[in-house]
């Protein structure tokens, strides 16, 4: 894939007080290149409990390819491609929710716990063009 039709990819997860922060970060790193910086922001929940938000923004083309390569390992990649109309919004952002527990084990599955948001390049910035660019990138990564 010569060029990658994404401006950036954000990967984010919440780490609740009942979870081990190192394990949640390890799950997040399943999708990131080695030694990639993960941002950490500590917040308080409604009842005063600690919630840590772990996130990373990938912008470099090689790093974007790495994330797409990991995403293409989904067993449900055909489902993901079929749902692109529902997963790309009017701002040309592509969303996927991934299983945090599976990611901790190094597996890639749709589920809850990790959020992947990718800003799709589209000129002009139209949703339909973004859907086709996302489809093309995912199919190329799968090949």
TrEMBL record:
Domain of life: Archaea
InterPro entries assigned to the protein according to its UniProt record, in alphabetical order: PAB1135-like (IPR002739), Ribosomal_uL5_dom_sf (IPR022803)
Family annotation (Pfam families): RNA_binding
Gene3D superfamilies, per database record: 3.30.1440.10
Alphabetical list of PANTHER family matching this protein: EXOSOME SUBUNIT (PTHR38816:SF1), EXOSOME SUBUNIT, DUF54 FAMILY-RELATED (PTHR38816)
Designated name of the protein: RNA-binding protein
Lineage, uppermost ranks: Archaea, Methanobacteriati, Methanobacteriota, Stenosarchaea group, Halobacteria
């Amino acid at each position: 894939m010569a060029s990658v039709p994404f401006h950036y990819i954000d990967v984010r997860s919440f780490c609740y007080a009942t979870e081990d922060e190192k394990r949640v970060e390890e799950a997040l790193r399943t999708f990131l290149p080695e030694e990639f910086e993960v941002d950490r922001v500590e917040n308080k929940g409604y009842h005063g409990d600690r919630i840590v938000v772990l996130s990373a923004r990938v912008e470099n083309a090689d790093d974007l390819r790495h994330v797409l390569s990991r995403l293409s390992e989904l067993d449900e990649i055909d489902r993901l491609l079929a749902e692109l109309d529902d997963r790309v919004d009017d701002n040309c952002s592509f969303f996927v929710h991934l299983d945090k527990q599976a990611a901790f084990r190094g597996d890639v599955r749709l589920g809850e716990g990790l959020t992947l948001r990718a800003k799709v390049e589209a000129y002009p910035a139209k949703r339909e063009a973004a859907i086709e660019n996302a489809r093309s990138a995912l199919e190329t990564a799968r090949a």
